[in-house]
Amino acid sequence: MAHAFALDERLAADTMEVTELELCTVRLMNDRTYPWLILVPRRADCVELIDLDPGDRAVLMEEIALVSRILRQETDAEKLNVAALGNAVPQLHIHVIARFADDPAWPGPVWGKTQPLPWDGLESADFTARLDKALQES
Predict the structure, then answer these.
(1) What is the pTM of this model?
(2) Are 103 and 35 in contact (CB under 8 A)?
């Protein structure tokens, strides 16, 4: 029996809602050290990209490209890191991280480099509103 989609509890705890796209919910990681978005396809029981049907995989790739363009536009990122690891949280989710030569983890990966620096409420509300508007207008 198929399950209904539910956001993993750890993703829910570590992120804030930005917007909903056709396939994915887009969330902001609660770490302002790195502007970091998470895309989660709203499909139950998906762990790997291959668990999505071909149509959903195509939509996911377009949504990754859209979110990447908007994140680069809004942050002037020097580099974007895009990854689907899922070792700690098995639910399929894609990281899109804006990177800068002066960030604390450069040029290495961001995981485990620094303690997360939570967003200030007003700052995160402004950033998520800008991202939402840009994503909806694209």
Answers:
(1) 0.94
(2) no
Which residues of the chain have a pLDDT value below 50?
1
Predicted confidence at residue 2, as pLDDT, reads 61
Please report, for the domain that includes residue 120, its CATH number. 3.30.428.10
Would 40 be classed as within a structural domain? yes
The C-alpha angle with vertex 101 and arms to 100 and 105, in degrees rounded to 5, equals 85
| Residue range(s) defining the domain that contains residue 27 | 9-137
Using alpha carbons only, give the angle 58, 7, 59 rounded to the nearest 5 degrees: 10
- Encoding tokens for residue 109? 């990966």
Contact of 132 with 74, CB cutoff 8 Å: no
Cα distances from 23 to residues 20, 52, 100, 101, 108, in angstroms, run 8, 11, 29, 32, 30
